[in-house]
Design goal:
The protein is an alpha/beta fold and 361 residues long. The chain has helices at residues 4-10, 26-32, 43-48, 50-59, 71-74, 84-95, 113-122, 126-138, 166-171, 175-186, 204-222, 245-257, 278-296, 321-327, 350-360; strands at 36-41, 62-65, 99-107, 145-150, 191-196, 229-232, 235-237, 261-270, 302-307.
């Protein structure tokens, strides 16, 4: 348990009664429908930005660590475990009645070099088991949902749609089944998930990705793998045009029929026309998200909505070199990508109210 003094610090230096009321928060609205609302967080932003901390405490029921649970962060060198940042997030969550989403155990882009080298040399599953044991035992009973595998799908390369990488090369296509079963040993009461992106648009690639994920889920379920849920990242992109609303809805129904729960796990919107006035940009973002949220929140298997950040100040999205070239202007012309609920000064944007209305619909 946390001491009273530490709990006060973790809640932003105020007593719990002084923190923004939660009865009208986005999470409170979601909770009325049996869902949750959350955001991804980084440890340094929680401690260094009181306005950010207040927004997270005030609006959310769940937080997802962006970095602190990834393997290359937890164990950059073999046997050298680093849990202090994650423990800090856990303390913040406990002090403010927030759930924590475990992101992520295995991701091709966050495997430490020592582990990749050793796995390819030995094909020894004990390396994976040790990693799972280190992390899952540390937070046993404290984290309900775990992204066991992050982004395993890659269209256009293999018939089964699995992304090439260390795990596939070392253990073959059944590595996902094996990973879920291993995770279940160390987290017997948690909900085990696969998290992936690219299922929102009527493009050849995304049509293929929807089909490939469904076939993967079908295969795992038939094999009896302990797969409880799917995370759909929902990184929306205005450059991709209209959303494939009917295909998304059908896709969600098929996932539900496999008996899995669904979390919209990393919602944000990448802009296209940065040269427009901020008001028009914000409205375009909100309108696009509204179309998506109307579809996904109509699906009863969707149990939660998490934004990949709350404020544009800390968005991972940025204008690309292609955006600058198309605008034919200096980088300063674009400003920040405006694809999150709060602007850089913590003003509520149209996207905030779109999310609010969708959760309350």
């Amino acid at each position: 348990m946390l001491s009273a003094g530490l709990a006060l610090l973790l809640s932003g230096g105020r007593s719990s009664s002084e923190v923004m009321p939660k009865d009208d928060s986005l999470n409170a609205l979601a909770k009325k429908r049996g869902r949750f609302f959350g955001t991804a967080v980084r440890t340094d932003k929680i401690w260094n930005d009181p306005a950010y901390r207040t927004a997270v405490i005030g609006e959310c029921g769940s937080i997802t660590p962006e970095v602190a649970l990834k393997w290359d962060f937890v164990e950059p060198q073999e046997g050298e475990l680093t849990f202090d940042p994650m423990n800090s997030i856990m303390g913040f969550a406990e002090a403010n009645d927030l759930d924590v989403h475990g992101h992520t155990l295995l991701w091709y882009n966050s495997m430490p070099p020592w582990a990749a080298r050793k796995i390819l040399e030995t094909r020894d599953w004990t390396i994976i088991n040790n990693h799972f044991a280190n992390v899952l035992r540390t937070y046993k009973g404290k984290i309900k949902y775990w992204d066991v595998i992050n982004e395993p799908i890659e269209a256009g390369k293999r018939w089964d749609g699995l992304r090439d990488g260390v795990m596939l090369q070392a253990f073959g296509p059944d590595y996902i089944d094996h990973a879920l079963r291993s995770a279940r040993i160390y987290a017997p009461d948690a909900k085990l998930m696969i998290n992936d992106f690219g299922f929102e648009y009527d493009t050849y690639d995304e049509n293929d990705r929807r089909w490939l994920l469904l076939r993967l889920v079908e295969k795992l379920k038939k094999a009896g793998a302990p797969l409880d849920g799917i995370g759909l990242q929902a990184h929306l992109d205005l450059a991709k045009g209209s959303l494939a609303s009917k295909k998304i809805a059908d896709f969600l129904v098929e996932l539900r029929n496999f008996g899995v729960k669904i979390i919209i796990s990393e919602l944000d919107v990448k802009e296209y026309d940065y040269a427009l006035p901020a008001e028009q940009r914000d409205q375009r973002v909100a309108d696009h998200a509204k179309q998506y949220l109307e579809v996904v929140l109509a699906e009863p298997a969707v149990i939660g909505l998490t934004c990949w950040g709350l404020t544009d100040r800390y968005s991972w999205l940025d204008a690309t070199d292609g955006d600058y070239k198309r605008l034919r202007g200096p980088r300063e012309q674009t400003g920040l990508n405006r694809g999150l609920p709060y602007d850089a000064n913590y003003g509520r944007k149209p996207l905030y109210y779109t999310i609010r209305n969708a959760l309350n619909a």
